[in-house]
Design goal:
180 residues; Aminopeptidase; 7-stranded mixed sheet; 5 helices; 7 strands; 34% helix; 33% strand; disordered N terminus
Length: 180
């Protein structure tokens, strides 16, 4: 019998291990697909998911330290994840000591239950522990619920960046928050 999560869900955030890269890949594909299935061309969506969410690449990122993945767990079930990526920031943040939350996705039925907030808080805590001064992310400019969520956590819009996807180019807003 499926387990039903309630408003009193116990939330845990933990770092994913390299040997869990297949779980990260499957979770990434499933949550991305769910988020964009109503908006995107099916071929563009399938191409993106199969190219971007490969278990071998994810394991390599974890092992090399170029990224950290965190599971959002609600009542012992993995319901979402976040990815911190340690790479060069966009021009809007040149010269700043910052890190990117490259991805944060939850299954939609778990939105609003505190998992996303705890994932963001864990990313901020990790960034502080690594002596970063700020954290940034990019979000599709039409994703108003996500934008409202990030703003409620103290992120401010600092620019825009193109996001090539399939045969189209979308606009992603850049958001930033000081954490030092």
């Amino acid at each position: 019998m499926p387990r039903i999560l309630t408003g009193n869900m116990r939330i845990e955030i933990r770092e994913a291990r390299p040997d869990e890269s297949t779980i990260v890949a499957a979770l990434s594909a499933a949550t991305f697909y769910e988020a964009y299935v109503e908006h995107d061309d099916p071929e563009d969506l399938a191409d993106y998911v199969t190219r971007e969410f490969q278990a071998g690449t994810i394991a390599d990122e974890i092992i090399s330290g170029s990224a950290q993945y965190f599971f959002g767990i609600g009542d012992s079930r993995i319901v979402g994840y976040a990815k911190l990526r340690f790479s060069r920031p966009p021009a809007e943040m040149a010269g700043k000591n910052v890190v990117e939350i490259q991805r944060i996705y939850l299954f939609s039925k778990f939105a609003g239950k505190g998992v996303g907030k705890q994932l963001i808080e864990r990313c901020i805590s990790e960034a502080r522990n690594k002596n970063f001064d700020g954290i940034w992310l990019a979000v599709w400019d039409a994703n108003k619920p996500a934008i409202g969520f990030y703003r409620s956590l103290g992120f401010e819009k600092i620019g825009e960046t193109p996001f090539p996807y399939g045969s189209q180019v979308f606009v992603n807003d850049l958001y930033y928050r000081e954490i030092s």
